[in-house]
Specification:
- By secondary structure, this protein is an alpha+beta fold.
- The chain has a domain at 47-137.
- Helices cover 46% and strands 16% of the residues.
- A three-stranded antiparallel sheet has the order 1-2-3, with helices on one face.
- β2 and β3 (130-137) form a beta hairpin.
- The longest helix is centred in the middle third of the chain and has 27 residues, at 47-73.
- The relative contact order is 0.11.
Amino acid sequence: MKGPKGNIINERDGFTLIELIVTLVVASILGTMLFQFMGVGVTQSGVPLHWLQEEYELSEAIEQITSDYKDAIKGPSFNLANFKSAIETNYSAYIVTAQTKYIDFACTTDCTESGINTDILKVQIEKNDQNMTVLFTQ
């Protein structure tokens, strides 16, 4: 077929159905291979950032508790029992779990948190899978 200027016009404009189907099949196979290769790396890439955020929050809480301890120990009437109750009161809503126990190191094998010696306070805070422990003395 000739056009108005005498040029030959190709009647085939666009792609055939077979070409489109083959392209879609090849693209889907490549996409599946890419997903299998990347897999968990792509879908779980935010987990380390979540862990880092939790660790930062715990570190921030420990820094605040330590700052309160440094301020409290400067006073003439510092009492570790009062500091323990202040931690339990002030920081219970800020973090998920706070354990405050007295610990005794006057043992030979396995030291337990007996609560007998009130000179050393163990503070352990945790949030999900992250935890931090600090020891405070009288």
